[in-house]
Amino acid sequence: MSVSITRVWRPSTARRVVLDGFAPVPRGTSQSNPPLLSWPAKDPADVLDYEFDISAAVAGHESDAVAAISVVPSPAGSGHLTVGDIAADGRIAVVWLSGGQAGTTYRLQLTVTTTSGRVLGRAVALPVLALAAQQTPSGALQAAGGAVITDQNGNPILIGG
């Protein structure tokens, strides 16, 4: 008997930022600006889901959830970061991101509207780095075409040193 498999997609918590800054501040003190929220770096070839958790902003309002999301990356344009699918999972906004230029830290302006009408705007940084590119180590033995010669474990064979 053959049974087709249904996949259940769940956002990855490895790329989740949690909205903070909603803690009460004692009288007579001033609150400093919290640091810019930041997602872990991605490679330009990655197509990944990134999460934005608004639970702190709606604490005490158990029925409130994400209703709409706007995402604007900067810098923008051809060859830069691309916003793909946008979804919500209760109090978590999920954004699929692809592309980007290596060496650029993008600033994504997220605006979330909740089912009760709250509107939250935050910026989140996303560094794009050439994570998949391997650099040739100094002193590596190379074939005539420039390919690095490796041992049986895949480690480059180094000349000298």
Describe the structure.
This protein has about 160 residues and is an all-beta fold. It has a domain at about 15-20 and about 35-130: Immunoglobulin-like (Sandwich), CATH 2.60.40. It is about 0% helix and about 35% strand. It has no helices and 8 strands. The protein has strands spanning about 15-20, 35-40, 45-55, 65-75, 80-90, 90-100, 105-115, 120-130. The strands form 2 sheets. A 4-stranded mixed sheet has the order 1-3-6-5, with no helix packed on it. A 4-stranded mixed sheet has the order 2-8-7-4, with no helix packed on it. A hairpin with a 4-residue loop joins β7 (about 105-115) and β8. The model has no long low-confidence stretch (mean pLDDT about 85).
